[in-house]
Design a protein that fits this description.
ATP-guanido_PTrfase, nucleotide-binding, allosteric enzyme, 11 strands, alpha+beta, 46% helix, globular, Gln_synth/guanido_kin_cat_dom, EC 2.7.14.1
Length: 355
């Protein structure tokens, strides 16, 4: 497999498109938590009840096509190798928690990888849908349609007063978790994110790292999402998140202008030094790679680097993760070997931009 083939396989097709404010907002995700009626939730049920859910999903939805998402394919955790599970996590097609359910866990993935449905994670079903850039309203609209398609063949656990019933109380109601992945290098450089994150939390939203709860904000990438769903409509949740995200976008743009005005030559030096590290390093750790990729993407957005694709951050933040590196190497790698493969892959990827 050539590097180009590997990239095409690694990057989901929807990631090659651009959406609104895509210089700052990398992606929008809508996730709906759903459970089957009269079946114990995964957090309290036994293996037999989870197997019942898995059988239902396999019979009703595996190899079935729906709208622009095309055919859905079921991947059972019991059939997947550890490195394959890790790759699916790194592509955000499923959560680390699901990977641990090796007996009854599964994920239903659409052909274009824009939609995936986790089976027997914290809830029976977790439908998630991705869009490039800031597209909360459109993503919600399509997620609702996908949810309707599932509900035609599934009886959901639902209460007239409480709404959709879920394992975690914070998801009861709409079961909606809307999140936006943002690249905020200027706010990070100026230490404003340390101040803004607690203020955003006070508004009922939460700021997390690239892989969600408990993860680190590598490469100045942050997820901003709603925290509560009970007592609010889906439209209200989206409107509140949209409003806060727009303010963060404006703050990031202002910070970029301020940094360029106050420290233009130092910023350029940092950006091109980072590019040099990526282009010439023989060994590079994941944190350093993420920091340098963030700098280079900022340089592209500011018009300082003109010969590199805007998707370089999206691509290499996925391609340089441990699972993909081992998939590319076709063998298990020790940490020092991963650092070598990571540097080699980044150099090769940057060389592709010259052709």
């Amino acid at each position: 497999m050539s590097l180009q083939d590997f990239i095409n396989d690694a990057i989901s097709p929807w990631m090659n498109d651009e959406g609104k404010d895509s210089d700052i907002v990398l992606s929008t995700r809508i996730r709906l938590a759903r459970n089957l009626e009269q079946v114990p939730f995964p957090t309290s049920g036994d293996q037999q009840s989870q197997e019942k859910v898995l059988q239902h999903v396999e019979q009703e939805f595996n190899d079935q096509s729906y709208d622009q998402f095309k055919k859905f394919q079921l991947v059972k955790m019991s059939d997947a190798e550890p490195v394959e599970k890790r790759v699916l996590v790194e592509k955000h097609l499923m959560s680390p928690n699901l990977a641990e359910n090796s007996q009854t866990g599964a994920v239903l993935i659409s052909e274009n990888e824009q939609a995936s449905v986790m089976v027997n994670e914290e809830d029976h079903l977790r439908l998630q849908l991705y869009y490039p850039g800031l597209q909360l309203q459109e993503a919600l609209k399509q997620a609702q349609k996908l949810d309707d398609w599932f509900e035609e063949r599934t009886r959901y656990a639902f209460d007239e007063q409480k709404g959709y019933l879920t394992s975690c109380p914070t998801n009861v109601g709409t079961g909606l978790r809307a999140s936006v992945m943002m690249h905020l290098p200027a706010l990070t450089m100026t230490n404003q994110m340390n101040r803004m994150a607690p203020e955003i939390n006070k508004l009922g939203l939460v700021v997390r790292g690239i892989y969600g709860e408990g993860s680190e904000a590598l490469g100045s990438l942050y997820q901003i999402s709603n925290q509560m769903t009970l007592g609010k409509s889906e439209e209200d949740i989206i409107e509140e998140l949209q409003s806060v995200v727009q303010q963060v976008i404006e703050s990031e743009r202002q910070s970029r202008e301020w940094v360029m005005q106050q420290s233009g030559i130092q910023l350029e030096d940092r950006i091109f030094r980072s590019y040099g590290v990526l282009a010439h390093s023989r060994i590079i750790e994941s944190k350093e790679a993420a920091k340098c990729l963030s700098d280079v993407r900022l340089g592209i957005d500011l018009g300082l680097i003109k010969h590199v694709s805007k998707n370089i951050l999206n691509e290499l933040m996925v391609l340089t993760q441990p699972g993909f590196l081992q998939h590319y190497a076709k063998k298990s790698l020790q940490p020092y070997e991963r650092d070598w493969f990571r540097a080699n892959l980044i150099r090769e990827r940057l060389q592709l931009e010259q052709y």
